[in-house]
Amino acid sequence: MDKLIITAAICGAEVTKEHNPNVPYTVEEIGREAESAYKAGASIIHLHVREDDGTPTQDKARFKACIDEILKRCPDVIIQPSTGGAVGMTDEERLQPTELGPEMATLDCGTCNFGGDEIFVNTENTIKNFGRLMIERGVKPEIEVFDKGMIDYAIKYAKQGFIKEPMHFDFVLGVQMAATVRDLSFMVDSIPAGSTWTVSGVGRHEMPLAAVGIAMGGHVRVGFEDNVYIEKGVLAKSNGELVEKVVRIAKELGREIATPDEAREILGLKK
Q: Can the keyword Transferase be found in this entry's annotation (predicted)?
């Protein structure tokens, strides 16, 4: 079984300081939260960025400032910018951070209902274009999956040459698809041989699915983007506190934690 890769999704685009005052907005705060997660054992920082007032943005200059701050504090960490951005952003806006040459970036393989009237749109042409540009820019996509059909799209577009294999998937459960062991197992059984995967449980599902993912030999994502509580009714003090909890679970289950360079080897990245 590979060592465990822990991804920290440190702020997302929707969660705010009203949900948890420790959610980072500024460049310094984002650097602080990335460092807390890295020191606790995260080898990947999944990165959204904000304006100082918390407004989500995909501005390339803002991403560069945040990436520079993170790398100053955590020189060997893998930074994985989001190309999801926020609901309503154009494809051109969303793709800006890939121009900075990151090792990884997210690639959402379908449209998703986020709740109420919020629809996160990814057309067939959007997915193909994002995949093609990531190949051109040498960026490994993390395939973001919110239901089984998105796996099928990823396999289809990989066969057409828009996504390189072997693929790495992130199963985000608790939004559009139920956060159950049955559904996670179904997703894992549906991806091509040789693929790697991470599980992200949203809200109260974060830690139970992390434990299941660790036991199944997959990898784990935690962080304020998905959940702001360390336990029921208790706000997490930092992203690092959430990562520390995953590390404790992993040690109890006999999984070693991957360093950033070990994660690169597992994922086939070249720094």
A: yes
The CATH number assigned to the domain holding 166 equals 3.20.20.70
Tens of pLDDT, residue by residue over 133-157, are 999 999 999 999 999 999 999 999 9
| 266 in Cβ contact with 251 (< 8 Å) | no
The identity of residue 186, as a single letter, is F
The dihedral region occupied by 54, where left means phi > 0, alpha psi between -120 and 50, and beta the remainder, is left
Residue 186's pLDDT is 97
DSSP of 30-46: HHHHHHHHHHHT--EEE
- Residue 251: which domain range? 6-267
Helix 124-136 with 148-159: angle, nearest 10 deg: 50
Task: Give how far Cα 165 sits from Cα of 95, 140, 141, 178, 185, Å.
Answer: 21, 10, 10, 27, 21
Asked if residue 1 is part of any domain, the answer here is no
Total domain count for the chain?
Answer: 1
> Quick one: pLDDT at residue 118?
83
H/E stretch holding 239: helix 239-252
- In the predicted model, residues of the chain with pLDDT beneath 50 are none
CA distances from 189 to 153, 182, 197 (A): 15, 11, 11
The pLDDT assigned to 271 comes to 56
Would residue 31 count as lying in a domain? yes
pLDDT in tens, 154-203: 999 999 999 999 999 999 999 999 999 999 999 999 999 999 999 999 99
Distance CA 62, CA 187 (A): 35
| Rounded alpha-carbon distances, angstroms, from residue 258 to 78, 119, 262, 265 | 12, 35, 5, 10
